[in-house]
User: What shape does this take?
Amino acid sequence: MGRYIDEILQPGEKVLYSTNAHWMFYLPAIGLWIVVLALVILSRMATVEGLVLLCLAAAAIAALAALYFTVTAWFHRFTTETDVTNMRVVHKTGFITRKTFEMSLDKVESVDVEQSIMGRILNYGDVTILGVGEGKQKITTIAAPLAFRNSITAR
Assistant: This one.
């Protein structure tokens, strides 16, 4: 399966910038994997048989939840594409059901970036593209939002 942008490029159109959903989608999974590790270590330190089994059972449940969050975060990042070409901005999410929006660079009126404190530290944020006659499109939690904005506005 190729990238969506490669399937829809027009003759003479080139990809100038590509970005994706930020890796912070993995943070819940990372936190749960840390809990799993702590529970396994705790089970090795426990001397009471019932406490060992309780720690291992809790670790198994947390591992299943961590695996679920890991797979869903990976799938979200795998199925999300955001690109800027020399002609338009293209954003695609989804695998079986697909949601896309495309906006001609000539129609872009403004590009706004919103970043929280954590977003500034980890370099992610939300980008809102306002188009002339096109409406407003918001792309949430993308990596390097300022570089993405600059690739749209620097023409």
